[in-house]
Amino acid sequence: MGDLWEKMFFENKNMQRILISALAEAKRPIILIGEGVRTSNTIQEVKTFSQHCCIPILSSRCSEDIVSGFKYYYGYIEVMAYDMQILYFQNRI
């Protein structure tokens, strides 16, 4: 796991600075994944990053099997529910 993390994060100094800055400012960070994680074959990298930083993962419905059973996986979101939330907040303003 250490070698994978080093290749993904520590060897790319620009990526390191961007992520550290964004995570430092985030109040409640979350990782949202979709089918791109499967097609890019980066499932293990996402899990490693989530576990190392203690950041929960949410997925699209089609990719819930990628991380089901993983300690930091909190479930999937549905597009319709998201759309309804947007409409609700737009109408309240």
Separation of the first and last Cα atoms: 46 Å
- Number of distinct helices: 6
Structural category? alpha/beta
Strand content: 5-15%
Q: Give a count of the beta strands, DSSP E runs of length 2 or more.
A: 3
> Average pLDDT, to the nearest integer?
79
Strand order of the largest sheet: 1-2-3
Alpha-carbon Rg, integer: 15 Å
Low-confidence stretches: none
Helix content: 55-70%
Order of helices and strands: HHEHHEHEH
Gross morphology is globular
Commentary on this structure:
This protein has helices at residues 2-10, 13-25, 35-39, 43-53, 64-67, 79-92; strands spanning 31-33, 57-60, 73-77. The longest helix is centred in the last third of the chain and has 14 residues, at 79-92. With 93 residues, the chain is of the alpha/beta class. It has six helices and three strands; from the N terminus they run ααβααβαβα. The protein has a three-stranded parallel sheet.
List the helices and strands and how they pair.
Layout: H1 2-10, H2 13-25, E1 31-33, H3 35-39, H4 43-53, E2 57-60, H5 64-67, E3 73-77, H6 79-92
Parallel strand pairs: 1-2, 2-3
Question: Main traits of this protein?
Answer:
single chain, 93 residues, alpha/beta, three-stranded parallel sheet
Summary?
By secondary structure, the protein is of the alpha/beta class.
